[in-house]
Every structure is written in C-alpha cells, then in structure tokens.
Structure prediction request, 340 residues.
Amino acid sequence: MMRRQVAIIGAGISGLACANRLTALGHRAVLFDKGRGPGGRAGSRRQGEQSLDLGAQHFTARHPDFQAAVDTWREADIVAPWPSMLYCVDHERQWHPHQDDETRYCGTPRMSALTRHLATGEELIPSTRITQLHERLDGWWLEDHHQDLHGPFDHVVVTAPAPQATPLLRPHDPALAAACSEIDMQPCWSAWVTFDAPLTLPGVDPGWPVARFDEGPIRLAIRHNTKPGRDEAAETVVLLATQRWSQQYLEDDASSIAQRLLDAFTDRLPAATALPDVTLGGAHRWRYANAVNCLGEEDHRIGDSGLVLAGDGCRGGRIEDAWLSGSHAAERLVSLVGAP
Prediction:
C-alpha cells in the first residue's frame, strides 16, 4: 500500500493527535491552521510581557490510552499536576476549599508547551484559513483565503469546530455535514486582569489556585501565577464566563466584557478584601469553545470520498476527548487504507 497523503484542517489537540498517529504509522500528514501556531483553545497567548492561557486551563486523564500519553509528557516535563485543590464560592461570598480524587494537569510553563511538543516534527502551515475543498482526479485540493491551492491529498481530516467544518464538507459529503449539525458548540468569554501586588483573600489559603462559582457570570477564576513554572509571573487572574452569559453578550466589545467580569469577580471576593491596583486587563472571545451535544459513541466519522470529521465536538468538550478523537480517526483511516 502506498504512503497516503493526508491534509488536516485545524492544529489543535485533535488535529495534532491525528497527525502524530498518522506519522507514526508511516503516512504523511500536513496540518493547516488559521492561527499563527498550533494549539487552538489549548494554546497560549502573549499579553504584555507574559504568556497567558486564555482557553483550556487544565485537563484530566480517564482513558488508559490518554493516561499513557500524559505519563510520557510528564516524564518530558511538558505537563505537571495542577491544581491540587480548588475553592468553591457560594452566593454569600464564602470560599470553601474543595478536594476530590481527580488528578488535573496543565502544560508547563504554559499550555502551549503541550501543543508545541505535539507539533514537533510535523508539517504545519500556519496563518492559513482553508475556505474550500476541491475534489479532482488526482485527489483533494485545499483552497485558502488567498485563493492559493494546496494538494493533492488522498484524504482530508477536518477538526475545525462544527460550524466552520460544515461549509467545507457540505458540497462533498452531506452525511458528514449533517453530523456537524448534531454538534452544539457554545461560546466563552475569557478575561484577564493583572494586579500590581499579590491578591490576598481573608480566610483563604494564600496559594489558592482556582475558584468555581455557583452563580453569576463567572464559571472559573484561575490564579495564573500559581501554575507550575510561573512563580515569577505577575499576579494575574483569568476569568472564564459561563456559556449562558457568554452567549448573551457574545457581540459586545472586549473592553466592556473585561470590566464587567472584573466587577463580578470583585463582588464575590470575601468581605474586607483589599483589591490591589489593576495594571493590565482584557478579554478574548472564543466563539466555539465548548461542545455541548456530541456524536455519541463514535468519536469521528469517515465519509465515502476520503473526507474525515474529528475533533472534541465529536466526543466531548475535554482535551482528552479531542486527543482521542484525532487518534482514533487516524487509526481507523489507516485500518481502511492499510500500512504503507
């Protein structure tokens, strides 16, 4: 069997996992991403003089295959356990420590360490938004936003969020496009605020890392400088809004979102908290952040004409789901076409 040429649209966790598996099995994978580098929602962004995780903050491992991968990343110092505890904040502004049996991990010294590790050795074409697919006699060609063509490829794996995957798939595989319509992707506003001094909360452990809120617009508050490898970072809190609130204010400007989330966070701090001065802040909108409805047991779909649908929306909203979907799509594709 010939070595297959596979294009992968999206260089997030799912696309990278798919590329890793295809490459390991002897096939060629080429990743295309509209961003300047790999990562997607698991990447990091430069804000001022520091790099912030504005999407995925940590992840868990429940499937044995993913746990095995996490173990290798830990050995390579790519990820580390974090956080070891959480706080839950009730409607009376009471902060309660919460511990469970779940081990959580984050990239070190930033989430993008993981995605850059997965991208090592892979062919990646960044800053390239694929707008159309063309099926020709010699295979699949990808047209980008500059109307440049890339190809030919034997297969195209689409790991972009379902609303972005649909227009690519619909002209060629209505069944895969219909599968996209089953997936519900919800937005998330992510804000950050940097203070000029440590944020000390009365009655709360000085090293508090993460707080969950039981009501209001904020879902999670993450104390960024408590993550492994960031001891010297400025005191920065990342605020992730709830899906409902994010949807309600989806089209508002980032500066007003940042201020409203900061105000909401301030309102939930323990009484008598002395808030340090703010030195930097902002917000980022993830239009397709969380997969609500997924495809069920089959975490990817393979069409009849060489197109493949994968991604966290197919299986679930967690990093583990994205990795498993991409890996499984690659393995099944290879099982259909054989080894080179």
User: Anything to note?
Assistant: The radius of gyration is 21 Å.
